[in-house]
Amino acid sequence: MREVKKIVIAGSGTMGCSMGAILAQAGYEVTLYDIVEEALERAKKVIALNWETEVKEGKISQADSEKLQAGLKYTTDKQAFADADFVVEAILEKIEVKHSFWEEISRIVGDDVVICSNTSGLSITRIAEVVNKPERFAGMHWINPPHLIPLVEIIKGEKTSQEAADVVNEVALKANRKPVIVGDAPGFVLNRIQLAILRESLHIVEQGIAPPEAVDDVMKYGLGIRYACLGPFQVCDLGGLDIFYNIASYLFADLCDKKEPFGMLADRFEKGQFGVKTKAGFYDYSDGKDEETIRYRDTMFNKLSDLLYK
């Protein structure tokens, strides 16, 4: 595989622009590609906002922030992929859209270039069905917000070579991420765990066991602190496998196992209340509470990241 110096990010939305800035900070030559100029202009503003927080938190100087932003390139020209040493795609989460993109782009990039999808759950094996030389294709799933969450899931499809996975791993490490290589199952690992928690949380509210605010507090001030430092298997070892076995023997049968979205999630979705982006979700984000919530999240994630990874 080719040595990675020039990286092209396809898709300049929330994920793409943040990934691009991180990789540029790591020393790579980064180009953000999108099909419309307006999307690239929005990306510039999002990157400026993200790095404004980083400057305020003392993560980077104002001068370095300005230099980093000035070094990023933006284009609507597909020929940018011809010069790439590494490509990450972060476009619409629909298989037909990704198929159309990769069928064309995998034939523009060099045959020795590792190419990746940032999909959060679509099968890497299925996306690779249209990819030229699928052995160099892998998943590189960054977690929102990418500039604050260090985890990167590297997903090996059925045809992904170990060499390609190793290249993706090296890029993530150079960008000061925490990569894990996982298999190609629906949702990979993070989203399987995340959605299992969400399903039980919805069930708890629906059954009247606790309101949403109480469930959030249980996670933030109990499990969140625990799992920020230790994984579930480590927690069990420290607590005693006998204890967890005995609890599982009576509790597993009572946990939710619904197969379709339900409860508050389905209700809010049907009403078009999608959270911060629409200023209404499980909570109210009107009158500036949306931006206030984002700033709070970014500040707290930064502090936690400092404690755990610096």
Which key features would you list for this structure?
310 residues, alpha/beta, eight-stranded mixed β-sheet, 12 helices, 8 strands, globular
For the largest sheet, list the strands in their spatial order: 3-2-1-4-5-6-7-8
Whole-number mean pLDDT: 93
Structural class: alpha/beta
Which percent range describes the beta-strand content?
A: 5-15%
What is the gyration radius calculated from CA atoms? 21 Å
Low-confidence spans: pLDDT under 50, at least 5 residues?
A: none
Number of strands: 8
Tell me, briefly, the overall form.
Answer: globular
How much helix, percentage-wise, in residues? 40-55%
Secondary-structure element order, N to C: EHEHHEEHEHEEHEHHHHHH
Description:
It is a single chain. The protein has 310 residues and is α/β, with parallel strands linked by helices. 49% of the residues lie in helices and 13% in strands. The protein is built from 12 helices and 8 strands. It has helices at residues 14-25, 37-56, 62-71, 95-105, 124-127, 162-174, 190-206, 212-229, 232-239, 241-251, 263-270, 289-309; strands at residues 6-10, 29-33, 73-75, 86-89, 114-117, 137-142, 151-156, 178-183. Strands 3-2-1-4-5-6-7-8 form an 8-stranded mixed beta sheet, with helices on one face. The two termini are 31 Å apart. The mean pLDDT is 93.
